[in-house]
Structure formats: C-alpha cells, structure tokens
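Contributing new records

If you add data, match the layout below exactly. Sequence lines come first and carry their own label; structure lines follow with theirs. Keep one chain per record. Anything else will be rejected by the validation script.
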Amino acid sequence: MVVIPKQQPVLENLNIYYLDIRKLLEHFQGEIGSGGIYFKSHSAEGVIFFDQDHLVSGFFQDKEVAVSGTEAVERLLAAGNEYNFTVTIYQIEPEEVYYWASIPTAEKIYKDLSTEFTDLEGLIKKMQQWQ
C-alpha cells in the first residue's frame, strides 16, 4: 500500500502518456524543493519521494510485486509504456520527506501492545533511545 500525505496537491490528474517523468522531477525539485509524485492506475500504484538534490526513495506495487527504494524508482521512471498512470504531485516539507519515504520499509518492533499492561511513558523513553 502506497502511503503519502494527502494534503492539497500542487498538480493533479496528469496523464503519464504526456509526461517525461525525469524532467518533471527535475522541474519540481527546483520549483518546490521536496515532495512526492504519486502514480495511480487501475492495476498499479507508486510514489517517488524527492528533495532538492536527490530522488530519496520510492515504492511501487502492482498485482504481482511490491518493491521499495531504488528498484521502485527505476520501475516508475520506466513505467510510462506499461501502465496508464494518473500522476499527482505533492509538496512535502524537507524534514518530513524522509519520514514519508521510510514508511514502506518500516518494521514493527512490538505488536499488540496495550496501555493497560504497558508503562507508556517508559516505552516512549525506550523508543527515543533507539533514535
């Protein structure tokens, strides 16, 4: 599942058929600095996160595969002929873009925790030590 902040997009409903994604990314790196380009079709979806200098990461998912990182970015950059994506561009603050880019690869440390049996304040302190 692709996760991206659903705030007001900078541009939306662009058809990939008419776009050069590499040039589009280069333009928005200079124009808005950091953000995400969300790709959606009936059979696949994905996102490329970028900052002013780099393509930070990406996530791609279709009916058969889900990949993240550089492999996802490359698939999305080359997907124009394979999928009829609708493209939406979001501006994301520079300090937040790395957070959103890391969500697809995040791992659960603990599951099924209940505040009834857990000292929440102690758990927060323990989690802050891991940063």
